[in-house]
TrEMBL record:
Coiled coil: none annotated. One of its GO terms (cellular component) is plasma membrane. It comes from Aeribacillus pallidus. This is Branched-chain amino acid ABC transporter permease. InterPro entries: ABC_transp_permease (IPR001851), LivM-like (IPR043428). It is found in: Cell membrane. Keywords: Cell membrane, Membrane, Transmembrane, Transmembrane helix. The keyword Transcription does not apply. It is a multi-pass membrane protein. Its main location: membrane. The chain crosses the membrane at residues 27-47, 54-78, 84-102, 127-144, 178-202, 214-237, 257-277.
Amino acid sequence: MLILFTQIFIFAIFAMSYDILLGYTGIVSFGHCLFFGIGAYSTAIILNANDNTIGFFLLGIAIAVIAAVLISFLIGMLSLRLQSHFYAMLTLGFSELFLIIAEKWRSMTQGGDGFTFQVPEFLRDRFIFYFFTLISLVLIYILLRTFTSSSVGKVLKAISQNQKRTEALGFKVLHYKIIASVIAGVVAAYSGALYAVTLRFVDPSVFSIETTLDALLMTMIGGVGTLFGPILGSGAVEFIQHYLSELGTEYSIFERWPIFLGLLYIIVILGFPKGIVGTFKSTVIKRKENRKEKEGLLKHSA
């Protein structure tokens, strides 16, 4: 269970990074796994080639962050001035390019088989690493909440609702979109670094589109544009995957558990179109409005 919760915390960070793009800026990315994979491979390669100390762990994260900043800035400059689907396709193209590099550059990445590596001694204890990822999740949530509540965050929200009106008000939309892209890329790279460390293994699958789809599902199930929603969504998705896979080993009917998982996702999204958090908020608001309406009718009748 400790490993399961650690995975939930890591993917919650990844899903929050995706929510900055989709929920707060209205940008769809099909290749957000690009930054997740960069974080995983940068950390793994550095730790594999050097002493397994905290210094090299931090160096791996620093390299991942710098790479994420440069690549997200480049992709943003090339595509965000155009329609949103250009960004989606360009990130997908870059993620496929990095997947091919990871598979073919065997001297560095061991190709499609991936490689195992050692981690710093203080992170080998699963209990310590569990708290490390939990603290990371809390701190990143606070930082992203502060960012989305700032004036920049409010402009991003305005862009997602009506980009032309935001431009008419004098805001340089491209600059704000690039800021969102860079922040999302950096946070995703950090989650990828944590993911590699918890497995102590990395392979090209971190660059696959399935990784991006996981983040998308977690964000949509939890609630787009809420930050807390992706945390709930990651918990729901990871728990469901874990228990369905366990059922698959015990009962033959659940052997093809991904099919049941897909059906469950469809039911949840149809039943909660605004996600868990969004549906809860709209229900609370509706009840308050109904209560005020009833109070108004009572006063009017009196």
